[in-house]
Protein: Chemotaxis protein CheY
Amino acid sequence: MKIMVVDDSSTMRRIIKNTLNRLGYKDLLEAADGVEAWEVMQRHKDEIGVLITDWNMPNMNGLELVKKVRSDSAFEDIPIIMVTTEGGKAEVITALKAGVNNYIVKPFTPQVLKEKLEAVLGISD
Structure:
């Protein structure tokens, strides 16, 4: 199972990927915005198991990406985690209505990412 990490900040992508590596997830894909993410996802349709995306990005933001992903039958059931600085109640509700399965507000700890990922994958201790 591949995990797709989408963030316009290369530093944030590296932090998320390093955290995922420490949690045992080695098969990772990455993109700098929603447009690039969509292109990568089209090439790996049957392989991606989780999408972790930022909200605020150029070209196609995370919310637009989530809506596009949810409109494609190949990805309608993929777990999506939104990682963003937008922590207000209205933003969380908007993201959930768009089809996000879980939500992480930056800055976050590796433990928070682990818990949210395990929650969307149905893994329990």
Observations:
- The longest strand covers residues 48-54.
- The longest helix spans residues 10-22.
